[in-house]
Specification:
With about 550 residues, this protein is of the alpha/beta class. It contains 15 helices and 19 strands. It has 3 domains: about 1-120 and about 190-230 and about 255-455, Glycosidases (TIM Barrel), CATH 3.20.20; about 125-180, Oligo-1,6-glucosidase, domain 2; about 470-545, Immunoglobulin-like (Sandwich). Helices cover about 25% and strands about 15% of the residues. The strands form 4 sheets. An 8-stranded parallel β-sheet has the order 9-8-7-3-2-1-11-10. The chain binds 1-deoxynojirimycin and calcium ion.
Length: about 550
């Protein structure tokens, strides 16, 4: 046996041994709760709305739902400013309603992942009220307070992610507090053991209520440099870019001690059966993979956001996948994200035709896919009239294209008023074509991106080679990207045309005779293919042995 075959045989054995934990084999679907389904006519989505749409999610074929924050909040950052970690904001419902949602989701075989926001609280959290009251309050050290710099002004040069200094002066006690985001989102001091214990208690509260895990907000931010040293300037920054990029975040995030904090969170998660820990981490691959932790003691899934920023072309994507596959620690399970509530949607980035190819890529790569609600309808970025801008970042840095409202617009369910999302004008506008771009219309159309996404999700579920098998590059030529997914018993071949010109791919002779299982154009299923595979413009094909 040549070395390559020996390695393949070994890898296949390893992949056969990968247990099929739901968070490995299934797909995660992100719900932005304000925008999924309104049930009480206030124009804002809520938990009861999500509950009423569980059937849709089960029909679609996802495994788990990640719900962006639903805790009591003054909503300065739409829930990412938590005023009580163990409650539900009345805008979203009640704890009873939440319990009902979990029970009904579980009855349908769907998991529930909560968004957990431990890096900062709301300015209205009672912990912060106590902490700011006096320098001697027992909760003073729960947040990050410092004297002004010797000549006056903020203690260091750190910038808020939403622009401006990350420090706000508090007259009452004559010190500054640190906030990586809005001044209404003071950062907690995770070096303080009491803070950790309080957060652990909050996580246990939800795990005991039956949630299946957490997506942890800005997990790589939890620990800051002990000496709060200045961040160095970023030579690549230009004034058109967001202000946060003016400095390199060398000291304000991704500190070595954060891994110990995360290992504690992981230990807690592991006290409960089958629960998952996902970390939100915007870092390059070589630093991202450290978040699997020493001996896999970290996050099960450190979110891999690389597809959000990689140029949409075969070469860069192939290199990205290979780099990521090589960088993963042994036993570390990959994952992929195409869109989320903070970045422009995939369709806005690559256009409607490539959005379908992107869906095939996401759902055929090795690793847990996270879908963002509405991408299955091909919702693009919606233009937001200036008087309807809601996002605090957009308001603080106008003209820099940082607004996140365009990717947070309501889900479109049918052709009735307000697309079936609400009986009231929604908090953000619908797409101009909502009368046809909605679940009811697209469900009935076998060639819609919704039907394609569902077909891919169900195909993935039935094929272990796709859900847990190995990944191997077969071709990267011009706009063509082809790869194989394989386990001990099964092979699936994926060929993607990332361009708008037709392609022909000469299949490697070692491949068996193949037929088309799914075309992104939804019209060639079952077609046998010869040694020269033709792909139409913007076409992706999933192929299986005859
Ligand atoms: C990351 C979240 O995804 C984003 O929406 C939020 O504004 C910041 N963290 C602050 O919590
Ligand atoms: Ca509502």
């Amino acid at each position: 046996m040549v070395e390559r075959d020996r390695r393949l045989a070994r890898d296949l054995r390893i992949s056969a041994a990968v247990s099929e934990a739901w968070w490995r084999s299934g797909a995660i679907y992100q719900v932005y709760p304000r925008s999924f389904q309104d049930s009480n006519g206030d124009g804002i989505g809520d938990l009861e709305g999500i509950r009423r749409r569980l059937d849709y999610l089960a029909w679609l074929g996802v495994e788990a739902i990640w719900i962006s924050p639903i805790y009591p909040s003054p909503m300065h950052d739409f829930g990412y400013d938590v005023a009580d970690y163990c409650g539900i904001d009345p805008i979203f419902g009640s704890l009873e309603g939440f319990d009902r949602l979990v029970a009904e989701a579980h009855a349908l075989g769907l998991k529930i992942i909560l968004d957990f926001v431990p890096n900062h609280t709301s300015i209205l959290h009672p912990w912060f009220a106590a902490s700011r009251r006096s320098r001697f309050d027992p909760k003073r050290d729960w947040y990050i307070w410092r004297d002004p710099a010797p000549g006056g002004g903020p203690p260091n040069n750190w910038i808020s992610n939403f622009g401006g200094s990350a420090w706000t002066f508090d007259e009452q006690t004559g010190q500054y507090y640190y906030h990586a985001y809005l001044a209404q989102q003071p950062d907690l001091n995770w070096r303080n053991r009491e803070v950790r214990a309080a957060m652990h208690a909050a996580m246990r509260f939800w795990l005991r209520r039956g949630v299946d895990g957490f997506r942890v907000d800005v997990i790589w931010h939890l620990i800051k440099d002990a000496a709060l040293r200045d961040n160095p300037p970023n030579p690549a920054w230009t004034p058109q870019r967001p202000e946060i990029e003016r400095l390199i975040e060398a000291h304000s995030a991704d500190q070595p001690e954060v891994h110990g904090v995360i290992a504690e969170l992981r230990g807690l998660i592991d006290e409960f059966d089958n629960c998952v820990l996902i970390g939100e981490i915007y870092l390059p691959i070589e630093r991202l993979v450290a978040y699997y932790g020493e001996g896999l003691s970290g996050a099960h899934l450190p979110f891999n956001f690389q597809l959000l920023q990689t140029p949409w072309a075969a070469g860069p994507i192939a290199r990205l996948i290979e780099t990521y596959e090589v960088a993963l620690p042994e036993g570390g399970w990959p994952n992929w994200v195409l869109s989320n509530h903070d970045r422009p949607r995939i369709k806005a980035r690559v256009g409607p035709d490539q959005a379908r190819v992107a869906a095939m890529l996401l759902l055929t790569l090795r690793g847990t896919p996270t879908l963002y609600y509405g991408d299955e309808l091909g919702i693009g970025d919606v233009e937001i009239p200036p008087d309807r801008i809601c996002d605090p970042w957009a308001k603080r840095e106008p003209g820099r294209g940082v607004g996140r409202d365009p990717e947070r617009t309501p889900m479109q369910w049918d052709a009735t008023a307000f697309a079936g999302f609400s009986t009231h004008e929604p908090w953000l506008p619908l797409t101009p074509d909502w009368r046809t771009r909605n679940v009811a219309a697209m469900r009935a159309d076998p060639a819609s991106i919704l039907s394609l996404t569902r077909a891919l999700l169900h195909y993935r579920r039935t094929r272990a080679s796709l859900s847990i098998g190995l990944w191997r590059l077969l071709a990267c030529e011009g706009d063509l990207l082809a790869f194989e997914r394989r386990n001990e018993h099964e092979r699936t071949i994926v060929a993607l045309n990332l361009g708008a010109a037709a392609q022909v791919w000469s299949l490697p002779p070692e491949l068996p005779k193949l037929k088309i299982a799914i075309s992104t154009h939804c019209d060639r299923d079952g077609e046998p293919v010869g040694p020269a595979l033709s792909l139409r413009a913007n076409e992706g094909l999933a192929l299986e042995p005859i």
